[in-house]
Amino acid sequence: MMKTALLVLGVTGLASAAVITNTPAFKTSLISQAGKYVALPDASHQPVPGTKMVFDITNIGNENNALKGLDRVAMFLNLAAENGAVKKGMFDIAVVFHGSATASALNDSAYHKVTKIGNNPNLSLMKELKDHGVRFYVCGQSLARNEYPISQVADEITVAVSALTVVINEQNEGAAFVPFH
């Protein structure tokens, strides 16, 4: 009985070691600050150039970290770069902030006043994404409801009349809706 138990433990230990050593390595490519991915060149549904999408981000999550939705935008671009689609303009990506994520659209000093934690952790990632053609919008209605002056919106972001109109207009132009709530 004891030999059987030791044999099972030994086999289980080897299986665990195999899983650990075969874990794919996560990496970044085009967008260096975020969007870690695993290269799967033989997997189906690789990013297709010409794809249009609108990321609808409504939840700020942890105010100390960049938004999860922005990380997913970065991951998409990194996956596209892995697939050889790296030229600016190969994808049409819009991001709209509203709800509690509205604060993410503020400049550093305004973000600090609202959150009391320091500079906006999203701005450097937004700058890098914008350099690769991503467009950013913030809901003007959410700004008004939160009493955030338009003058405090970060330079990387355009004020839209509403998040609703951004989503509708982008979808009317063929964009896939990608929610992060």
Q: Can you describe what's shown?
A:
The protein is of the alpha/beta class and 181 residues long. It has a single domain (52-180), classed as DsrEFH-like (Hypothetical Protein Ychn, Chain: A), CATH 3.40.1260. Helix content is 37%, strand content 14%. It is built from six helices and five strands, in the order αβαβααβαβαβ. The protein has a five-stranded parallel β-sheet, with helices on both faces. It is globular.
State Rg: 21 Å
Number of distinct helices: 6
Q: Indicate the CATH architecture.
A: 3-Layer(aba) Sandwich
Secondary-structure element pattern, one letter each: HEHEHHEHEHE
CATH fold group = Hypothetical Protein Ychn, Chain: A
Oligomer: single chain
User: How many E-type strands?
Assistant: 5
Structural class per helix/strand content? Answer: alpha/beta
Task: Report the end-to-end length measured between terminal Cα atoms.
Answer: 53 Å
Would you summarize the structure shown here?
By secondary structure, the chain is α/β, with parallel strands linked by helices.
How is the secondary structure organized here?
Blueprint: H1 2-21, E1 52-57, H2 68-82, E2 92-97, H3 108-115, H4 123-130, E3 135-139, H5 140-145, E4 158-160, H6 163-172, E5 176-180
Label this structure with key terms:
181 residues, alpha/beta, Hypothetical Protein Ychn, Chain: A, five-stranded parallel sheet, 6 helices, 37% helix, globular, disordered N terminus
